[in-house]
Amino acid sequence: MKIHLVSGGCGFVGRNMVKRLLQTTEDKVFMVDDLSIGRHPSEWLEDFSSTTLEDVEVIGKEKRLFFWKGDFRNLLFYMRQNPRYIQEKYHLDFEHFSDVFHFAAIVGGRMKIEGDPMIVALDLSIDAEFFYWVTQHKPERVLYPSSSAAYPVSLQTTDGAIALSEGDINFDKNLGTPDMTYGWSKLTGEFLAQIAAKHYGVKVACIRPFSGYGEDQEQSYPVPAIAARAARNEDPFEVWGSGKQGRDFVHIDDVLDFIFMLLDRVDDGSAYNIGSGRLTSFLELIALFGEIAGYSPTIKPLLDKPVGVHSRYANMDVVLEKFGWQPKISLYEGMKRVYDRQKMLLDKK
Ligand SMILES: NC(=O)c1ccc[n+]([C@@H]2O[C@H](COP(=O)([O-])OP(=O)(O)OC[C@H]3O[C@@H](n4cnc5c(N)ncnc54)[C@H](O)[C@@H]3O)[C@@H](O)[C@H]2O)c1
Questions:
Q1: CB of 8 closer than 6 angstroms to any ligand 1 atom
Q2: Is the CB of 126 inside a 6 Å radius of any atom of ligand 1?
Q3: Domain with CATH 3.40.50.720 in the chain
Q4: Which of 18, 57, 148, 340 could covalently link to 50 via disulfide, CB atoms 3.0 to 4.6 Å apart?
Q5: Is 187 a residue whose pLDDT tops 90?
Q6: Over residues 258-277, mean pLDDT
Q7: What does the DSSP assignment read for 70-98?
Q8: CATH architecture assigned to 3-213+251-274
């Protein structure tokens, strides 16, 4: 029997991954989330039904999905005390988890990263406990999501922004200063991944996603928030900062495809970009949503809002050369999907 572990399984990336695993495999999935941000699976799984086994919910008719609600660090502590804690308590017959996807983290949008940097720093403790457990348990494969926020902010300024390439982070030579406590925790997480691989023989791959988005992302993120306002035909259209700042948007379905490709190919803890390679400013994004919604709003800049670095986008050359991989979903198609979802929600009200 194969069983995968997904931490942060009720968050944006996690729930998309859980759904994908349930749809494309016959394996079991053990999902952990404290629901601090994440949503209970009854909200995002079709035909939801569940029973209770001790303190987990066993979800679905096939009883393949197990949901442990709580702080992942507590579960890691129990598993450290008793390496067979899960197997014994929930009568599950397996030696090691197959794939471990570690999405539990305090993330949030720009408001949280700049407004409450110390809570985001708790990611350091989640990741340290996680990697310590990983080196003991030795799952078959591990996926660690770093972030484009790990790149030096000095490469993302108004005059000097470049397309960020994997080699711009080199633990032997140049690190630079990453983006706030969030970037530091991700950079540290990558370093721990490399240590786990090199010193403990753990098979681990890291991704550096740029701006991942999708239909079911929280409204605190720019893409669904802007789509919802376009669906309401907002005019004037408010934008944080001047709107000239840019990001590299990549659809969650492409992110998941990339993860599975990478797990088959990388096991030494190294990290790869996942973006489109294209810089899109927020003004361009609003214009695109305006085009989809069929109107052309005037822009109202909100200069007191936090905007982060000026331009953050990926150089995807290494990924293309090494793996022959590139995202399939165009900016227009992805944003149209998000818009359609927001429009449907609006029309239902
Ligand atoms: N979405 C993106 O575009 C993006 C980009 C770069 C990196 N990442 C990384 O991917 C991972 C997932 O991101 P996301 O967008 O799904 O974020 P998210 O906030 O939607 O999901 C994180 C989940 O972890 C849960 N959580 C937080 N602390 C926890 C704890 N101590 N114990 C158990 N659960 C806890 C939250 O409730 C939430 O459901 C994060 O590590 C993030 O840094 C995401």
A1: yes
A2: yes
A3: 3-213+251-274
A4: 57
A5: yes
A6: 98
A7: S-HHHHHHHHHH-TTHHHHHTT---SS-S
A8: 3-Layer(aba) Sandwich (3.40)
